[in-house]
## 1
Amino acid sequence: MKPHFGEILSSSPPSLRSRPGNLRGNLLSALWFLFIAACFVGSLSHCQVASAQTQTTVPSPNARSFEARGHEFITPETQKAIDRGLVFLANRQHDEGWYFANSYKRNVAVTSLAGMAFLSAGHVPDRGPYGKKVDKSVEYILSCVSPSGFIKRDDSPEHGPMYGHGFATLFLAEVYGMSPKPEIRESLKSATQLIINSQNKEGGWRYKPDGRDADVSVTVCQMMALRAARNCGIAVPKTTVDNCVEYVRKCQNADGGFRYRLGDRPMSEFPRSAAGVVVLYNAGVTDGRDLERGLGYLLRFPPRQDLIPTNNHYFYGHYYAVQAMWHAGEENWRQWYPAIRDELLARQGPDGGWTDLQINDVYGTSMACLILQMPNNLLPIFQR
């Protein structure tokens, strides 16, 4: 039996595109909701969701009902927080499409995550209140694609260029089919091929696309991009996915968490462990001992401010943890999401943003908006 949130908390201090969630808020009218629904349905002509290991199956009635009811978790207070967060992001975008984000300005990862935050609210390129913002982000990312397919901006500081490349590739895959720009597909293909070509012999990736080393965190970022690209019909070899899954499995520790790299001492941490669980789900692993142990580890750290410090990759960890609980099923989701939702609402700043001490507030706000909007179920990469 899979562990669930309630058991842990009581003892310690998707698939084909589904219909969009309820787009509420003052900015979106009922007519706009119908228009966005048509846009997402129309994008099916471009994107096909396919598992890297298994054939697509029709969800059970209970699964469909669970996904359809997701919007019920977005309370009026939550929608208000999301709206304020999107205003915060919109006000910090440069005319070129990148974001004013302290030392990380012009960063492709930050730009891509902000773009995805708008997409998660139903805003598509050139359509809707923030459509222009999305389109500018797309234009900026396309301008950063090199002839080799590497998505990088040399004059922007970053923790590791493959992080930026992975998130930018993911963003292009999510916006593909929503924009008429023909260059998106070619850029997505070349970016995907660069990931495939740079996988190291262990099955993972690290900071540079040279195939010399690997760690769990960067590996998960590339795997998410590959899955999103495959959803859009871009060819991804099965061996690439299989080798990635094998690498992640080998990094799992006895306590269910994940170490940073093969060969490191077996020390687990919540952020990368959440990422490790999500990559298994996205690779088509839906059950088994690895997932049970991984979920068991995550459930030792329910959303509570005294358990996960804000300077320990807080937003990164919960970005993946909320996806893990969405995949894990309704019982865990019904207890995990309200907890992280309420915690994020309490942490929102007066200006509508969320503070991240390690990267910047644009990054923190983008991640918070993505977490809060998971129940919208609009982005294919998050669907069960």
## 2
Amino acid sequence: MKNHNLVKTALVSSLVVVSLVGAGCSKSIKPQERKPAKLIKVDNAVSVLNPMAKIALPQGGGRLLNKTAINKKDVIDLQVAIIDRTLIAVSRSGLVAAYALHGGQMLWSVDIGEAVVSGVGVEKDSGTVVVGTRSGKVVAIDANSQAIRWQKTLPSSSLAPALVAHDRVMVSANDGVIYALSTQTGQQVWQFNAQTPEVSLRGVATPLYLDGQTAVFGTADGRIYAINPEIGRPLWNRRVGRAVGGSQVHRMSDVDGQPLVVGHHLYAISVSGQLTGYDTTTGQTMFTASLASNKSLTALGNLLIGASLDGDVVAFDRITGQKMWENSELKYRKLTNPIAIGNYVAVGDLDGVIHVLDNSGKIISRTETKGRLTSLHAQNRHLYTQTTDGVVNVWQF
């Protein structure tokens, strides 16, 4: 299964550019080069983000895996996590480290000795920190003792942080299987097999803990699945992405962005262009709008905001799905997920620039860091980023 996934990943990596050129385009035709838009100077910039910490992550021992060096051009989204006033991050070469949120000084570190491809999943109550390696190994660390609690090798790796909740470590793997392991021992408790298409985008949606009885997973078959985390029983599923072309590449419908919950409303988006809102109290679809994305959505007041595959930032009414505005100034800049920061929205790009937009879609300020940004995270009026160069930044807003 591992070899199949590697072949599939290589195939998709070479074809995805073609798949985004437009329906009806032959794979034999060289796609038109899409240059990132040049940035326009922001007049009368508003100060929104105040720097708190900048951390250059040290390297671990996982520089080599199966005699193959880590490819520095390989874009991997190593997300950080927060436990109380401590930031947990992991370098690509396998050093998991904890830092004081204020000041950025290192508190402890654990070298797991392998290249890491999925960032930090945590459970605050038990102090469990989980990362995943390229070989498919899931490693659980006790944040209190700073010791490796257990290691478990799965048939496939994952590119998304594990969901750690309800005494379960739930991993949405690249082979289309969701694995649940015991938080205490690492033993497999259950697994759920989603349908696996022959071709899909390289990526996996970060799982979402909805409540004590429900965990939600986005999958490569264009669906979201709700599963009981204790016993693995599927509760319901909804189709989000729909095939829209003749070839396998054009028919990709992955749900790679983490589903978003606001009150009793659930939102999900697919790479094939469907943005769907659901009412969780009735199970009914509220609306379906048009936006193709592999990034998570965010909510700002009554707005639902996403970043398209082409680099448009688009806002919808989160009840009706009506498009409210669209900003196309960041075309082809390989945007991160947008994230609400107070009264504004932030989105990062391939040059490490964070763009801040107001609720009308106007860019009002920019902040720069080093290296390509892959995702943005906000919690307790702090914005967290990690670049592909291994630099973690913390801002207050």
## 3
Amino acid sequence: MNNYLESLILLRRALHSQPESGWTEFLTTAFIAEKLQEYGFSIFLGEDIVAREFISGTDNEGIEKGILRAQQKGVSSTLLKQMNGVTGCMGVLETHRPGKTIALRFDIDAVDVSELATSEHFPFREGFHSRNPGCMHACGHDGHTAVGLMLAQWLYENKASLTGSFKLIFQPAEEGTRGAKPMAEKGIVDDVDYLLCAHLSFIASSGELVIDPQQFLSTKKLKVIFNGKSAHAGAQPHLGRNALAAACQATMQLLAIPRHGSGISRINIGALHSGQASNVIPDRAEMKLEVRGETDEINDYMFQQVKNIIAGCSLSYQVEYNISTEGQANSLLNDEELIKLLGKVINDVPEITSPVQHRLFGGSEDATVLIKRVQQKGGKGIYFIVGADRTSGHHQSDFDFDEKMMLTMFKVYCQMIMHLSNQQH
């Protein structure tokens, strides 16, 4: 297993040095695809695994820059043509023996954070810090992807002792909960019997494993555009329709939405952009916000309140508006069969010294969209947390995690796969 750890670290550090934000992960996708082919997997890219019409929260400029970066790094034109402007990759391995279809999902994107460039920061000191300015693996997705690729090698090496088929899903754009929906809508998990998902660190330290995290918050990420009419603010203010005023009024009302009495509810306005000059009535305002709820029903309540307020403020200021969903995730209930199995197999992973049955997750994660799709189609899913000590909070410039815990995650996945593949069918 020491060889696996060395390989995991090399993979993780290669990925860490070339971070890419959601829907621009062309270099990362090519790296994954080439490794999967080495390990005997069939690869699927682009619109074979992503429903383009459900993609949100991206822009053509970012995609073009991502493609150019991949070209400059030597990614083959064949792979880029297969991607066709869409990132993400799925590898499939068939054992050609009857059995279940087991899928594992790994997120591949980074966040728009500038990585700390001082000797106190381990990735900088060791020379594997970000080479993509303004972008950083500050959430552990590089570790997740490394584990997924190592599992691909392990599955290939152990294919003779396994049954059924395996899907390794490398999902783009988890940040902002944007990538799972287009994959789910493509139907790539509709035949899956078991879907396994996990995260490093977050709510757990090295040696811990949270078997059944609680309170995955359902969420919608929204963009609202108000369109008014510009006018001279001194000579003809009566001819203007102030989009900024409508957005500001909406902001105050949105933050005052009554919280739901049946569980956690959240709202945040994260960005508001409008106007160009002090003497011009702003004719456009763009707002980015999110709502969250402990259940899908509570989140729907928050979303409906948002729609009501935006409509009312637009009417008051005589401006037009458009609301678009830029990302989404569901609440989650792990399946009991997989909860029990995970609780059993971690006894065979000595690095897990402190198993935790329940702990509050308290955030949103779009793997829930894929898990819910599997559950709706009759399959089962689970999302768990493998603890890893970290240097700071997720999404911070000095973030780093205990690399040894990648091997722990790898071992847990291997144990789960062996039990699920070799059970009676």
